[in-house]
Design goal:
By secondary structure, the protein is mainly alpha-helical. The chain has 5 helices and no strands.
Length: 94
């Protein structure tokens, strides 16, 4: 792990401060997406895999099941891919 990654990790908020996505609110997926995008802007040295690994913790209920199924089908993917998939799946209320 590089020095900049170690410093970014120290600044990364604990999981309890991240918004959760449960599919219960019409736009709660956008709250999580905006939060993660903000982190990446403010802490650009955060490795992508730290964000994608945290998704399991932040997704609840049906969203967690969907995420697990997508990982089984598509394997490890980066944050832009997951962001696109979340928007595609949940922006129309399905």
């Amino acid at each position: 792990m590089s020095y900049s990654e170690k410093e970014a990790l120290k600044q990364l908020p604990v999981a309890s401060r991240w918004p959760k996505f449960s599919c219960k609110g019409e736009y709660d997926h956008m709250e999580l997406i905006d939060y993660i995008d903000g982190l990446l802007i403010n802490l650009p040295s955060i490795p992508d895999y730290w964000i994608t690994a945290r998704l399991n913790t932040e997704l609840k209920g049906h969203a967690s099941i969907w995420h697990t199924e997508m990982k089984e089908i598509h394997g490890t993917r980066n944050w832009p891919w997951w962001k696109s998939q979340i928007i595609q799946k949940y922006s129309n209320g399905t």
